[in-house]
Amino acid sequence: QYSLIKDVVSSLKRHRMHEQQFTHHPLLVLSNFGLQQIQVKLMASMFQNMLPSINVHRVNLNSIKRCLLISYDAETQLLDFRHYSVKVVPVGVSKGLKKLLQEKFPNMSRLEDISELL
Q1: How many CA atoms, within 13 angstroms, populate the side-chain half-sphere of residue 88?
Q2: Could you please report the per-residue DSSP string of 9-77?
Q3: Could you tell me which of 30, 26, 9, 19 has the C-alpha nearest to residue 65?
Q4: Full-prediction pTM beyond 0.70?
Q5: Predicted confidence (pLDDT) per residue in 40-81, tens digit
Q6: What's residue 47's pLDDT?
Q7: E strand or H helix that includes residue 90
Q8: Higher pLDDT, 41 or 8
Q9: In contact, 51 and 24? CB cutoff 8 Å
Q10: Rounded distance, CA 19 to CA 67, Å?
């Protein structure tokens, strides 16, 4: 079973597709591949070698825009592929500061001072 990209995009309320998402390879996440069966180990090795490895100490987290999740179900012996778009957003800050951090300019016409925004 699969879905075409045009069907996925048409079902989304706000889709985020831009060329910058595909300038860097996705982060690969393998789930349930820890079984000792040789075919499961072979599949895990194949998926790991399809994409370049990521050095966690050197990678710029802002460059990772996608995540590829591959999950194996041992009972049905089926693979589940999920391809996610990743967006980094500031958390735990005021609405005005969040807009500034995202390089959006908030409406400051109702404010007396910049401190009211922050």
Answers
A1: 10
A2: HHH-SS----GGGGSSPPEEEEES-----HHHHHHHHHHHHHS----TTT--GGG--EEEEEEEETTTT
A3: 26
A4: no
A5: 999 999 999 998 888 888 888 778 888 999 999 999 989 999
A6: 93
A7: none
A8: 41
A9: no
A10: 16
